[in-house]
Design brief:
With 484 residues, the protein is mainly α. The chain is built from 14 helices and 6 strands. It is an enzyme of class 1 (oxidoreductase).
Length: 484
Amino acid sequence: MFEGVDALLLARIQFAFTVSFHFIFPAFSIGLASFLAVLEGLWLKTGKQLYLDLFKYWLKIFAIAFAMGVVSGIVMSYQFGTNWSVFSDIAGPVIGPLMAYEVLTAFFLEAGFLGVMLFGMNRVGKKLHFAATLMVAVGTFVSAFWILSVNSWMQTPVGYEIGANGQYLPGDSWLEIIFNPSFPYRLVHTVTAAYLTTAFVVGGVGAWHLLRDRTNLHARKMFSMAMWMAAIVAPIQIVAGDMHGINTLEHQPQKVMAMEGHYQSHPDGAPLILFGIPDSEEKRVKYALEIPKLSSLILKHDLDAPLAGLDTIPDDEEPPVGIVFWSFRIMVGIGFAMLGLGLWSLAARFRRKLYDWQWLHRAALVMAPSGFVAVLAGWITTEVGRQPYVIYNLLRTADAASPLDAPAVGASLVAFVLVYFAVFGAGVWYILHLMRKSPHLGEKGVKRGDTGPIRTAGITPGPSQNPGDPSTLPRNQEEATDGR
Protein backbone atom coordinates (compact mmCIF):
# COMPACT_ATOMS: atom_id res chain seq x y z
CA MET A 1 0.00 0.00 0.00
CA PHE A 2 2.84 2.40 0.84
CA GLU A 3 5.41 1.07 -1.59
CA GLY A 4 7.11 3.95 -3.38
CA VAL A 5 5.98 6.53 -0.77
CA ASP A 6 8.67 8.57 0.97
CA ALA A 7 9.15 7.20 4.51
CA LEU A 8 10.32 10.63 5.70
CA LEU A 9 7.10 12.22 4.51
CA LEU A 10 5.01 9.58 6.29
CA ALA A 11 7.02 10.07 9.50
CA ARG A 12 6.45 13.81 9.34
CA ILE A 13 2.72 13.33 8.71
CA GLN A 14 2.50 10.93 11.63
CA PHE A 15 4.20 13.31 14.03
CA ALA A 16 2.14 16.26 12.77
CA PHE A 17 -1.06 14.26 13.25
CA THR A 18 -0.26 13.11 16.78
CA VAL A 19 1.13 16.45 17.97
CA SER A 20 -1.91 18.29 16.57
CA PHE A 21 -4.25 15.98 18.45
CA HIS A 22 -2.17 16.35 21.60
CA PHE A 23 -1.75 20.11 21.43
CA ILE A 24 -5.46 20.94 21.58
CA PHE A 25 -5.87 19.28 24.99
CA PRO A 26 -3.07 21.11 26.88
CA ALA A 27 -4.14 24.34 25.17
CA PHE A 28 -7.52 23.81 26.82
CA SER A 29 -6.44 22.35 30.18
CA ILE A 30 -3.84 25.07 30.89
CA GLY A 31 -6.47 27.78 30.74
CA LEU A 32 -9.21 25.67 32.32
CA ALA A 33 -7.07 24.80 35.35
CA SER A 34 -6.55 28.50 36.03
CA PHE A 35 -10.26 29.17 35.46
CA LEU A 36 -11.12 26.51 38.04
CA ALA A 37 -8.73 28.09 40.53
CA VAL A 38 -10.41 31.46 39.99
CA LEU A 39 -13.88 29.96 40.47
CA GLU A 40 -12.95 28.18 43.67
CA GLY A 41 -11.18 31.28 44.97
CA LEU A 42 -14.29 33.38 44.31
CA TRP A 43 -16.43 30.79 46.07
CA LEU A 44 -14.19 30.86 49.14
CA LYS A 45 -14.14 34.66 49.14
CA THR A 46 -17.84 35.32 48.53
CA GLY A 47 -19.50 32.12 49.71
CA LYS A 48 -21.78 32.20 46.67
CA GLN A 49 -23.11 28.81 45.61
CA LEU A 50 -23.02 29.96 41.97
CA TYR A 51 -19.21 29.79 41.84
CA LEU A 52 -19.12 26.35 43.43
CA ASP A 53 -21.66 25.06 40.90
CA LEU A 54 -19.58 26.39 38.01
CA PHE A 55 -16.42 24.92 39.55
CA LYS A 56 -17.95 21.44 39.73
CA TYR A 57 -19.45 21.77 36.26
CA TRP A 58 -16.12 22.59 34.59
CA LEU A 59 -14.18 20.19 36.83
CA LYS A 60 -15.81 17.23 35.08
CA ILE A 61 -14.82 18.60 31.69
CA PHE A 62 -11.28 19.34 32.89
CA ALA A 63 -10.82 15.77 34.13
CA ILE A 64 -11.62 14.32 30.71
CA ALA A 65 -9.54 16.85 28.76
CA PHE A 66 -6.58 16.40 31.12
CA ALA A 67 -6.71 12.61 30.77
CA MET A 68 -6.81 12.78 26.98
CA GLY A 69 -3.90 15.23 26.99
CA VAL A 70 -1.76 12.90 29.10
CA VAL A 71 -2.52 9.83 26.98
CA SER A 72 -1.94 11.60 23.66
CA GLY A 73 1.32 13.06 24.98
CA ILE A 74 2.69 9.66 25.97
CA VAL A 75 1.95 8.24 22.52
CA MET A 76 3.60 11.20 20.83
CA SER A 77 6.80 10.92 22.87
CA TYR A 78 7.37 7.33 21.74
CA GLN A 79 7.94 8.56 18.21
CA PHE A 80 11.23 10.11 19.27
CA GLY A 81 12.57 6.58 19.58
CA THR A 82 10.72 5.00 16.68
CA ASN A 83 10.55 7.44 13.77
CA TRP A 84 13.16 9.97 14.94
CA SER A 85 15.88 7.93 16.61
CA VAL A 86 18.72 9.88 14.94
CA PHE A 87 17.35 13.11 16.36
CA SER A 88 17.04 11.50 19.80
CA ASP A 89 20.64 10.30 19.65
CA ILE A 90 22.15 13.57 18.46
CA ALA A 91 20.06 16.00 20.52
CA GLY A 92 19.30 13.74 23.49
CA PRO A 93 21.94 15.19 25.86
CA VAL A 94 20.20 18.58 25.60
CA ILE A 95 16.58 17.63 24.95
CA GLY A 96 16.40 14.66 27.33
CA PRO A 97 17.11 16.48 30.61
CA LEU A 98 14.70 19.30 29.79
CA MET A 99 11.88 16.82 29.13
CA ALA A 100 12.84 14.94 32.30
CA TYR A 101 12.52 18.18 34.28
CA GLU A 102 8.99 18.52 32.92
CA VAL A 103 8.11 15.09 34.31
CA LEU A 104 9.88 15.59 37.65
CA THR A 105 8.29 18.99 38.28
CA ALA A 106 5.08 19.60 36.37
CA PHE A 107 3.77 16.08 35.88
CA PHE A 108 4.50 14.98 39.45
CA LEU A 109 2.94 18.19 40.77
CA GLU A 110 -0.21 17.64 38.73
CA ALA A 111 -0.39 13.94 39.54
CA GLY A 112 0.14 14.55 43.25
CA PHE A 113 -2.70 17.05 43.63
CA LEU A 114 -5.10 16.02 40.85
CA GLY A 115 -6.79 13.35 42.97
CA VAL A 116 -7.37 15.80 45.81
CA MET A 117 -8.73 18.35 43.35
CA LEU A 118 -11.12 15.88 41.70
CA PHE A 119 -12.31 13.83 44.67
CA GLY A 120 -11.21 15.56 47.86
CA MET A 121 -13.62 18.43 48.35
CA ASN A 122 -15.60 16.48 50.98
CA ARG A 123 -12.50 14.96 52.59
CA VAL A 124 -10.08 17.82 53.15
CA GLY A 125 -10.50 21.38 54.32
CA LYS A 126 -11.61 24.08 51.94
CA LYS A 127 -8.25 25.84 52.01
CA LEU A 128 -6.33 22.63 51.42
CA HIS A 129 -8.56 21.76 48.49
CA PHE A 130 -8.06 25.24 47.04
CA ALA A 131 -4.30 24.77 47.46
CA ALA A 132 -4.55 21.51 45.49
CA THR A 133 -6.44 23.29 42.70
CA LEU A 134 -3.76 25.99 42.62
CA MET A 135 -1.02 23.37 42.43
CA VAL A 136 -2.68 21.69 39.45
CA ALA A 137 -2.97 25.09 37.74
CA VAL A 138 0.69 25.85 38.49
CA GLY A 139 1.63 22.38 37.25
CA THR A 140 0.00 22.96 33.87
CA PHE A 141 1.96 26.20 33.49
CA VAL A 142 5.24 24.56 34.53
CA SER A 143 4.61 21.81 31.98
CA ALA A 144 4.19 24.44 29.27
CA PHE A 145 7.38 26.13 30.49
CA TRP A 146 9.58 23.07 29.96
CA ILE A 147 8.01 21.86 26.72
CA LEU A 148 8.27 25.32 25.19
CA SER A 149 11.85 25.60 26.38
CA VAL A 150 12.65 22.38 24.50
CA ASN A 151 10.92 23.49 21.34
CA SER A 152 12.34 27.00 21.52
CA TRP A 153 15.86 25.61 21.79
CA MET A 154 15.19 23.67 18.58
CA GLN A 155 14.16 26.98 16.99
CA THR A 156 17.03 29.07 18.40
CA PRO A 157 19.77 26.68 19.61
CA VAL A 158 22.38 28.21 21.92
CA GLY A 159 24.63 27.09 24.78
CA TYR A 160 25.63 23.77 23.20
CA GLU A 161 28.87 22.05 22.30
CA ILE A 162 29.42 19.40 19.64
CA GLY A 163 30.92 16.19 21.03
CA ALA A 164 33.40 13.93 19.34
CA ASN A 165 30.58 11.62 18.21
CA GLY A 166 28.57 14.51 16.75
CA GLN A 167 26.12 14.84 19.62
CA TYR A 168 24.96 18.23 20.84
CA LEU A 169 26.06 18.54 24.44
CA PRO A 170 25.14 21.18 27.04
CA GLY A 171 27.77 23.87 27.48
CA ASP A 172 28.73 25.76 30.61
CA SER A 173 25.25 27.01 31.52
CA TRP A 174 21.90 25.27 31.42
CA LEU A 175 20.24 28.65 31.94
CA GLU A 176 21.44 29.74 28.50
CA ILE A 177 19.82 26.66 26.99
CA ILE A 178 16.56 26.98 28.94
CA PHE A 179 16.15 30.72 28.39
CA ASN A 180 17.20 30.68 24.76
CA PRO A 181 16.50 33.78 22.63
CA SER A 182 12.99 32.85 21.45
CA PHE A 183 11.75 31.17 24.65
CA PRO A 184 10.32 34.16 26.58
CA TYR A 185 8.29 35.34 23.59
CA ARG A 186 7.01 31.88 22.73
CA LEU A 187 6.07 31.15 26.34
CA VAL A 188 4.01 34.32 26.70
CA HIS A 189 2.40 33.91 23.27
CA THR A 190 1.48 30.25 23.76
CA VAL A 191 0.20 30.46 27.34
CA THR A 192 -1.85 33.53 26.50
CA ALA A 193 -3.29 31.62 23.54
CA ALA A 194 -4.26 28.81 25.93
CA TYR A 195 -6.10 31.26 28.19
CA LEU A 196 -7.94 32.72 25.20
CA THR A 197 -8.80 29.25 23.94
CA THR A 198 -10.42 28.38 27.25
CA ALA A 199 -12.16 31.74 27.47
CA PHE A 200 -13.85 31.29 24.12
CA VAL A 201 -14.93 27.74 24.95
CA VAL A 202 -16.43 28.95 28.23
CA GLY A 203 -17.99 31.92 26.44
CA GLY A 204 -19.42 29.68 23.74
CA VAL A 205 -20.98 27.34 26.30
CA GLY A 206 -22.41 30.31 28.19
CA ALA A 207 -23.78 31.75 24.94
CA TRP A 208 -25.39 28.40 24.04
CA HIS A 209 -27.32 28.34 27.30
CA LEU A 210 -28.19 32.04 27.11
CA LEU A 211 -29.75 31.49 23.70
CA ARG A 212 -31.95 28.86 25.31
CA ASP A 213 -32.69 30.82 28.49
CA ARG A 214 -31.31 34.32 28.96
CA THR A 215 -32.32 34.28 32.65
CA ASN A 216 -29.92 31.40 33.40
CA LEU A 217 -27.68 32.81 36.15
CA HIS A 218 -24.94 30.23 35.66
CA ALA A 219 -24.77 30.95 31.93
CA ARG A 220 -24.71 34.68 32.60
CA LYS A 221 -21.74 34.38 34.93
CA MET A 222 -19.83 32.11 32.53
CA PHE A 223 -20.45 34.40 29.59
CA SER A 224 -19.54 37.55 31.52
CA MET A 225 -16.25 36.14 32.82
CA ALA A 226 -15.30 34.81 29.37
CA MET A 227 -16.03 38.11 27.63
CA TRP A 228 -13.96 40.02 30.20
CA MET A 229 -11.10 37.65 29.39
CA ALA A 230 -11.55 38.18 25.65
CA ALA A 231 -11.70 41.95 25.95
CA ILE A 232 -8.62 42.19 28.16
CA VAL A 233 -6.35 39.38 26.92
CA ALA A 234 -6.93 39.54 23.15
CA PRO A 235 -5.17 42.95 22.82
CA ILE A 236 -2.32 41.66 25.00
CA GLN A 237 -2.00 38.63 22.74
CA ILE A 238 -1.76 40.80 19.63
CA VAL A 239 1.05 42.85 21.23
CA ALA A 240 2.82 39.65 22.34
CA GLY A 241 2.48 38.26 18.83
CA ASP A 242 4.03 41.40 17.37
CA MET A 243 7.02 41.11 19.73
CA HIS A 244 7.34 37.42 18.89
CA GLY A 245 7.37 38.27 15.18
CA ILE A 246 10.16 40.79 15.64
CA ASN A 247 12.19 38.21 17.58
CA THR A 248 11.58 35.64 14.81
CA LEU A 249 12.78 38.12 12.18
CA GLU A 250 16.03 38.46 14.09
CA HIS A 251 16.71 34.75 14.60
CA GLN A 252 14.76 32.97 11.83
CA PRO A 253 14.43 35.46 8.97
CA GLN A 254 13.38 32.94 6.31
CA LYS A 255 10.39 31.93 8.42
CA VAL A 256 9.19 35.55 8.42
CA MET A 257 9.86 35.79 4.70
CA ALA A 258 7.57 32.81 4.15
CA MET A 259 4.94 34.21 6.53
CA GLU A 260 4.93 37.51 4.67
CA GLY A 261 5.17 35.96 1.20
CA HIS A 262 8.29 37.98 0.41
CA TYR A 263 9.97 36.11 -2.41
CA GLN A 264 11.84 39.25 -3.43
CA SER A 265 13.84 41.69 -1.28
CA HIS A 266 12.45 45.18 -0.74
CA PRO A 267 15.21 47.76 -0.18
CA ASP A 268 12.80 50.71 0.19
CA GLY A 269 10.06 49.25 2.35
CA ALA A 270 8.16 45.97 2.02
CA PRO A 271 4.41 45.72 1.40
CA LEU A 272 2.04 43.78 3.65
CA ILE A 273 0.45 41.09 1.48
CA LEU A 274 -3.01 40.49 2.88
CA PHE A 275 -4.04 37.69 0.53
CA GLY A 276 -2.73 35.94 -2.55
CA ILE A 277 -1.56 32.60 -3.90
CA PRO A 278 2.14 31.89 -3.27
CA ASP A 279 3.89 30.31 -6.25
CA SER A 280 7.33 28.99 -5.29
CA GLU A 281 8.15 28.05 -8.89
CA GLU A 282 7.60 31.56 -10.19
CA LYS A 283 8.86 33.11 -6.95
CA ARG A 284 5.91 35.45 -6.49
CA VAL A 285 2.51 35.75 -4.85
CA LYS A 286 -0.17 35.68 -7.52
CA TYR A 287 -3.21 37.94 -7.28
CA ALA A 288 -1.66 39.68 -4.30
CA LEU A 289 -3.75 42.18 -2.34
CA GLU A 290 -1.18 44.29 -0.54
CA ILE A 291 -0.66 47.51 1.41
CA PRO A 292 2.57 49.29 0.42
CA LYS A 293 5.35 49.43 3.02
CA LEU A 294 3.15 48.25 5.90
CA SER A 295 5.21 45.09 6.49
CA SER A 296 8.30 47.22 7.11
CA LEU A 297 6.32 49.36 9.53
CA ILE A 298 5.09 46.32 11.47
CA LEU A 299 8.37 44.41 11.57
CA LYS A 300 10.85 47.28 11.86
CA HIS A 301 8.59 50.20 12.81
CA ASP A 302 9.84 52.16 9.82
CA LEU A 303 7.95 52.55 6.52
CA ASP A 304 11.16 52.67 4.47
CA ALA A 305 13.10 49.96 6.33
CA PRO A 306 14.57 47.36 3.93
CA LEU A 307 13.45 43.75 4.26
CA ALA A 308 15.30 40.83 2.69
CA GLY A 309 13.35 38.25 0.71
CA LEU A 310 13.67 34.57 -0.09
CA ASP A 311 15.86 35.51 -3.05
CA THR A 312 18.66 35.79 -0.47
CA ILE A 313 18.11 32.21 0.73
CA PRO A 314 19.26 29.07 -1.12
CA ASP A 315 16.33 27.17 -2.61
CA ASP A 316 17.04 24.07 -0.53
CA GLU A 317 16.69 26.09 2.69
CA GLU A 318 13.35 27.72 1.91
CA PRO A 319 10.41 26.57 4.02
CA PRO A 320 7.16 25.56 2.27
CA VAL A 321 5.85 29.07 1.65
CA GLY A 322 2.24 28.21 0.84
CA ILE A 323 1.56 26.39 4.12
CA VAL A 324 3.31 28.98 6.28
CA PHE A 325 1.72 31.90 4.42
CA TRP A 326 -1.86 30.68 4.93
CA SER A 327 -1.52 29.21 8.43
CA PHE A 328 -0.11 32.54 9.61
CA ARG A 329 -3.07 34.42 8.14
CA ILE A 330 -5.55 32.05 9.73
CA MET A 331 -3.94 32.62 13.13
CA VAL A 332 -3.82 36.40 12.77
CA GLY A 333 -7.34 36.57 11.35
CA ILE A 334 -8.76 34.63 14.28
CA GLY A 335 -6.82 36.82 16.69
CA PHE A 336 -8.45 39.96 15.34
CA ALA A 337 -11.85 38.24 15.32
CA MET A 338 -11.34 37.51 19.02
CA LEU A 339 -10.47 41.15 19.60
CA GLY A 340 -13.61 42.20 17.71
CA LEU A 341 -15.83 39.95 19.80
CA GLY A 342 -14.24 41.25 22.99
CA LEU A 343 -14.89 44.86 21.95
CA TRP A 344 -18.45 43.96 20.93
CA SER A 345 -19.04 42.50 24.38
CA LEU A 346 -17.71 45.71 25.98
CA ALA A 347 -20.21 47.74 23.96
CA ALA A 348 -23.01 45.41 25.06
CA ARG A 349 -21.85 45.57 28.67
CA PHE A 350 -21.69 49.36 28.56
CA ARG A 351 -25.29 49.47 27.29
CA ARG A 352 -26.36 46.82 29.85
CA LYS A 353 -27.30 44.42 27.05
CA LEU A 354 -24.66 41.75 27.56
CA TYR A 355 -27.28 39.08 28.18
CA ASP A 356 -29.83 40.38 25.68
CA TRP A 357 -27.99 40.74 22.36
CA GLN A 358 -28.62 37.39 20.72
CA TRP A 359 -26.38 38.12 17.75
CA LEU A 360 -23.51 38.59 20.19
CA HIS A 361 -24.37 35.22 21.73
CA ARG A 362 -24.53 33.58 18.31
CA ALA A 363 -21.14 35.05 17.39
CA ALA A 364 -19.65 33.77 20.67
CA LEU A 365 -21.07 30.32 19.96
CA VAL A 366 -19.53 30.29 16.48
CA MET A 367 -16.21 31.47 17.94
CA ALA A 368 -16.15 28.77 20.64
CA PRO A 369 -13.69 26.48 18.77
CA SER A 370 -11.70 29.38 17.29
CA GLY A 371 -8.94 29.13 19.88
CA PHE A 372 -8.14 25.55 18.89
CA VAL A 373 -7.93 26.53 15.22
CA ALA A 374 -5.69 29.48 16.07
CA VAL A 375 -3.24 27.51 18.22
CA LEU A 376 -2.97 24.79 15.58
CA ALA A 377 -2.42 27.39 12.86
CA GLY A 378 0.25 29.06 14.98
CA TRP A 379 1.93 25.73 15.67
CA ILE A 380 1.95 24.90 11.96
CA THR A 381 3.46 28.31 11.20
CA THR A 382 6.21 27.72 13.76
CA GLU A 383 7.08 24.15 12.85
CA VAL A 384 6.71 24.22 9.07
CA GLY A 385 8.44 27.61 8.98
CA ARG A 386 11.51 26.02 10.57
CA GLN A 387 11.91 23.53 7.71
CA PRO A 388 14.06 22.05 6.28
CA TYR A 389 15.61 21.89 9.76
CA VAL A 390 14.48 20.07 12.86
CA ILE A 391 17.14 21.94 14.86
CA TYR A 392 17.42 25.28 13.15
CA ASN A 393 20.54 25.62 10.98
CA LEU A 394 22.08 22.53 12.65
CA LEU A 395 20.19 19.33 11.88
CA ARG A 396 18.04 18.81 8.81
CA THR A 397 14.77 16.95 9.17
CA ALA A 398 15.83 14.48 6.48
CA ASP A 399 18.92 13.60 8.53
CA ALA A 400 17.01 13.16 11.80
CA ALA A 401 14.65 10.34 10.81
CA SER A 402 15.06 6.65 11.64
CA PRO A 403 16.09 4.28 8.83
CA LEU A 404 12.62 2.78 8.39
CA ASP A 405 10.80 1.59 5.32
CA ALA A 406 7.65 3.36 4.22
CA PRO A 407 5.28 0.40 4.86
CA ALA A 408 6.35 0.26 8.53
CA VAL A 409 5.74 3.96 9.08
CA GLY A 410 2.57 3.94 7.01
CA ALA A 411 1.05 1.03 8.93
CA SER A 412 1.56 2.77 12.27
CA LEU A 413 0.18 6.00 10.80
CA VAL A 414 -3.03 4.26 9.74
CA ALA A 415 -3.31 2.65 13.18
CA PHE A 416 -2.88 6.02 14.88
CA VAL A 417 -5.53 7.64 12.72
CA LEU A 418 -8.08 4.90 13.38
CA VAL A 419 -7.44 4.67 17.12
CA TYR A 420 -7.22 8.42 17.67
CA PHE A 421 -10.48 9.20 15.93
CA ALA A 422 -12.24 6.39 17.77
CA VAL A 423 -10.89 7.01 21.28
CA PHE A 424 -10.47 10.77 21.28
CA GLY A 425 -13.56 11.24 19.15
CA ALA A 426 -15.55 9.52 21.88
CA GLY A 427 -13.90 11.70 24.51
CA VAL A 428 -14.66 14.91 22.64
CA TRP A 429 -18.25 13.75 22.08
CA TYR A 430 -18.66 13.20 25.82
CA ILE A 431 -17.22 16.63 26.61
CA LEU A 432 -19.71 18.22 24.22
CA HIS A 433 -22.46 16.15 25.85
CA LEU A 434 -21.50 17.60 29.25
CA MET A 435 -21.37 21.13 27.84
CA ARG A 436 -24.82 20.73 26.34
CA LYS A 437 -26.26 20.39 29.84
CA SER A 438 -26.67 23.60 31.77
CA PRO A 439 -24.99 24.07 35.16
CA HIS A 440 -27.55 23.95 37.92
CA LEU A 441 -27.90 24.61 41.61
CA GLY A 442 -26.18 21.89 43.61
CA GLU A 443 -23.93 20.65 40.78
CA LYS A 444 -22.46 17.28 41.81
CA GLY A 445 -19.01 17.49 40.25
CA VAL A 446 -16.89 14.42 39.48
CA LYS A 447 -18.61 11.18 40.47
CA ARG A 448 -16.52 8.98 42.72
CA GLY A 449 -18.75 5.97 43.31
CA ASP A 450 -20.60 4.87 46.41
CA THR A 451 -17.83 2.65 47.79
CA GLY A 452 -14.84 4.83 47.03
CA PRO A 453 -12.03 4.15 44.58
CA ILE A 454 -11.46 0.66 43.22
CA ARG A 455 -8.44 -1.06 44.77
CA THR A 456 -6.21 -3.03 42.45
CA ALA A 457 -4.68 -5.21 45.17
CA GLY A 458 -5.54 -6.49 48.61
CA ILE A 459 -8.92 -6.68 50.24
CA THR A 460 -11.53 -4.02 49.57
CA PRO A 461 -13.12 -3.23 52.96
CA GLY A 462 -16.86 -2.92 53.14
CA PRO A 463 -18.72 -0.24 55.09
CA SER A 464 -18.74 -2.31 58.28
CA GLN A 465 -14.95 -2.79 58.12
CA ASN A 466 -14.16 0.92 57.91
CA PRO A 467 -17.00 2.83 59.52
CA GLY A 468 -14.97 6.02 59.79
CA ASP A 469 -14.52 6.35 56.03
CA PRO A 470 -16.64 9.28 54.77
CA SER A 471 -17.37 7.23 51.65
CA THR A 472 -19.53 4.92 53.79
CA LEU A 473 -21.90 7.72 54.81
CA PRO A 474 -25.38 7.70 53.35
CA ARG A 475 -25.56 9.70 50.15
CA ASN A 476 -27.72 12.44 51.61
CA GLN A 477 -25.44 12.81 54.62
CA GLU A 478 -22.33 12.90 52.46
CA GLU A 479 -23.84 15.58 50.28
CA ALA A 480 -24.68 17.55 53.38
CA THR A 481 -20.93 17.96 54.02
CA ASP A 482 -20.39 19.38 50.53
CA GLY A 483 -19.41 22.78 51.85
CA ARG A 484 -22.77 24.38 51.11
